[in-house]
Amino acid sequence: MIHTRKLTRNFVVKKETVEAVKGVDIDVAPGELVAFLGPNGAGKSTTLRMLTTLLKPTSGTATVAGLDVAADPAGVRARIGYIGQGNGGGHSYRVIDEMIMQGRFYGMNAADAKARADELLTSLELTDLAKRTVIKLSGGQRRRMDVALGLMHSPQLLFLDEPSTGMDPQNRANLWEHHAHARRARNHDRPHHALHGRGGFDVGAGDRHRPRHDHRR
Ligand SMILES: Nc1ncnc2c1ncn2[C@@H]1O[C@H](COP(=O)(O)OP(=O)(O)O)[C@@H](O)[C@H]1O
Ligand SMILES: [Mg+2]
Question: What is residue 208's predicted lDDT score, i.e. its pLDDT?
Answer without folding.
Answer: 34
